[in-house]
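Here is a typical sample entry:
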Amino acid sequence: MLTKLAMSGLKNRFRDYAVLFSGLVIASAIFYMFMALATNQDFVKANSTVAAAPFVFGFGAVLLAIITLVYIIYANTFLMSMRQRDYAMFIMLGAKSSKIGQLIFIETVLVGSLATVVGAVFGVGLTAITGRLLINQLHATVKHFSAFWLPALLITFVFFIILFVIAAVMNQSRLLKTPVLQLLHADQTPNRTRQKKPMLIAQIVSAIVLLGIGYWSMKAIVQLQLLSIPIALVTIVLGTYFLFNSVFVWLISLLKRNRNFAGKGIRTFTLAQLSFRIRDYTKILSVVSILFALALGAITVGIGFRNQISLFASYGSQYDVVLHSPSAATQQKAKQLTDVTSTVTYQQKHDSKNIYYLTSEFEAHPLLAKASSNIASTKVTKITPSTYKEYSPSASALQELAPFKQRDLAVKFVSASAFAAIPGATSTATTYRVKSFDDNYQAIAALVKADRKAQGMGEQAYGLSGKFDSYEVANALFSGMEFMGFFLGIAFLAMLASTLMFKILSGAAYDQVRYLMLQKIGTRPSVLKHSIRQEIGALFLLPGIVGVVHVLFGLQLFKALMVNPYANLWLPFGIFIVLYGIYYFLTVWLYQGIVIDKELN
């Protein structure tokens, strides 16, 4: 009977439960995605250049568990808010408290268990799809990756079931101790908290001190070693909570006192909306800002390792591919290269001691080479017959032009008449430069394979094909970390955006009455929509700003692994802002659809 009653409650409020269920599914799916990497020790060790990677993943798992716990607490509160009026009615009609307690337990565990099962299955599929897409797009060399990882699946089931059993027990205790009238009017009770000025100042100071310690510990990674990670984890999480719990409250109070600002439109109503549920928002915004930092940081680091691969590849050669006396079939394959920026062909002859090049060809088209032994330098020099002896890396640059069997010969530059007098057949070396190596990866790989076969080098003759081999070596070294960065960034992005979106939408049913009242007294829908955009915009913007600051300091951790972790920050930040903005507009659209009655228009 109780099970039927619980299922009936789920059916009658399917729309509200759908919001909750979707959020729990995403939470369990993201938890599985992370655990599929963190618990796979073979994967972590094989794909990370950092010896402390297992240690880092361990602390990441702890942090994600804490964040998930906070999310479950919020979801549990939402579940109770939907059903507490019904429970109060059952009690008023004479239902026994023990039976109501059993009903609460069944509903909580039932919803949680179903969401965990669906989320785990969804997580396996999402892990497989995301992993395969990233491996293909990044040309990543990833070892021991498995979308279905039984230990991660078991940990996800056990962790979430335990959480929901604890939540069910807490719900029982909380509801049975709460007076019936309070249950009936809980949705009308403001969550406003009045903080005394000394307490507010103390929290602001604590936030500044804790965040300062956390940022310093990340910068002092060389001195603190692995100790910097737990210090940063604890201090930044606590500092972020105090920051929102003090500064956010103070900011809203300050804006409400400013009549010039609050008096325009219905800003007073918007600010009242924020302060009405201020305690819940400070908690969720703290969680979202941490997730924002993790997601943006992971994607930024992933792109940083992608830049490392490009730097290493360019250090090996300035030419994307060099073909030696290519056959007609190979030349046809070369036409598949896209966005070719330059093509130069050099003639060459050789004897037993020397390999000869035309002086005129090198004067017309100097050979390009790295100008500095510093891998971070992008400066390129031009090698001509008059300067090549003065430039030490010219030997390796010229070797790339020579056929495999003549690479140990001395280089000589001669005139056209002298070149014609040298006995033997003339061979060629054709260089290609393209706009994007990644976009032409498959075509370049095919050309390198054909060139090696024609020279009798064998397909595995690594280190002899210039940029391609440098790219392959760097890709094997860094692509695992790059893959993990993008993979975890996508996972945390989905987690943070869904957490904030579902938190906002969960309160839409309560806000519907207030917006309906404004509509009935003549407020235009356009004004209401503007107010909604401002309110939700503040809830998205504040954790975003804090998260960006966390990332800017957090990149200090990777200075020892990257040439410049701050290079091209506009790219990951731009990608993330676009994705984050999509979630914002989706949330606004869904929220407006719930709280604004279109029939009154």
Summary: The chain has a mean pLDDT of 75. The beta strands are 321-324, 340-350, 354-358, 367-370, 380-383, 410-414, 427-434.
